[in-house]
Amino acid sequence: MTAPLLTNLDGLPAAVSVPAYDRSTLRPGIVHIGPGAFFRAHTAIYTDAAIGLAGGDWGITTVSLRSTDTVDALTAQNGLYSVLVRETEGTEARVVGSVISALAASREPENLSALLASPQTRIVTLTVTEKAYGLDPLTGGLDRSHPDVAADLAEPSRPRGVIGYLVEGLARRRSAGIAPFTPLCCDNLPSNGAILKRLVLDFAAERDAGLAEWIAANVPFPSTMVDRITPASTDKTLSDAERITGRRDLAAVETEPFSQWVIEDAFVSGRPDWGKAGALFVADVAPYEKMKLRMLNGAHSLIAYLGFLAGHEFVRDAMADPAFAALVRAHMRAAGKTLDPVPGIDLDVYADQLAARFANRAIAHRTYQIAMDGTQKLPQRLVEPAAILLERGESASTYALAIAAWMRYGLGHDRNGKSYDLRDPRGEEIAARVRTITPSAQAISAALFALPGLFPSALTENAGWRAEVEQQLAFLLTGDVASAIRAVNI
Ligand code: CS2
Known about the structure:
This protein is an alpha/beta fold.
């Protein structure tokens, strides 16, 4: 007999934590765009915990701009879902109650615009991934050729992309004399609030200069650093959730015990008491954000590309290889050198924690998952810190290996000749560049270093560093990851 669907909290096993408040009192105060696993394992949980500990009626309407599966699963379960927190000692389950409804904008676009214009909506949080914003890496402003941006500029009152929706919602509020909401970007971008502000203002200015001025004067864009390692859910996630809770749950997620959220406290229409749930409010998120992007995410990208090439399916497998683990530590040390002091954080302790989190045997985090969207991730994770090191005359050799691994990965086939999808919005462009050349280290690096807007001259014109990249590529082209790691000056 199959277990009943998770539609209510009645009769759940005592070991499963449940919301510590009456869900019927929640009102739709937050719209969250991007209902993926990360949101369900992080942002929604902070809100759930904050309501339980400090009260408030901050219900979340979670919205998907494209897919419908998660929205349908959550809708069928009255917004409830379970989170499995995995440690080597065992798994703990918790059912989260802060999501009160879910909406698929692809089916109900006008309902999303109306929701964003509703006075009840006071915060709009976003986890839509780096590529969804339409950020032009060269100017830091709006990429008008991004498919969503171009479509939304042509028809602003019927948006389909995240920036178009935010601007349409704010425009409707301004016309109706309603106070703005606070947009809160929770994606892994540096100074994500400032980036979002620039994109929203660029877009709004194309529609109406008065609207852009109103947004600039009235809407805060707090930056935030979010952190929790959350592998994509698998059949095992769902079957384990069912075994532990006794309920079928098609929106279940699994994650690690660690969780961190650092936020700038600038909210125009109130906010939940996320601090009670462990979030840290600070005046300037930038030092935390850079630390996380360069030490955690940068190391993650190194592990993803090199680990994938070495045949490691999961991050934990790469970390189980002592030479690989030493390389990761060396990379974190190099990344740490590019950072200003981070208030309250000892970077050596942080690196120790990261290494332990990556090595967690209970977390099956695919290297292939992290390898996705490389062109969107490289600038803030690898390119910028490498340029800082080289400018200071320091070694950036772990970076040379990481970039070489990304380039080798870009060939789109593994060491056994098996091909895979790059899953990168610039994947076609990469394939077109590498398809037509003889696959030598020089030719591949020349082709990929010339990708517009990705690598600054500080890297491409540094002959010594380029030679390191090419030497590493030569090792990787023969499948010799061990020699590549040995060649790094650790
Ligand atoms: C990862 C991140 O997939 C990736 O690119 O580096 O999702 C990472 O797991 C999170 O940022 C951790 O907070």
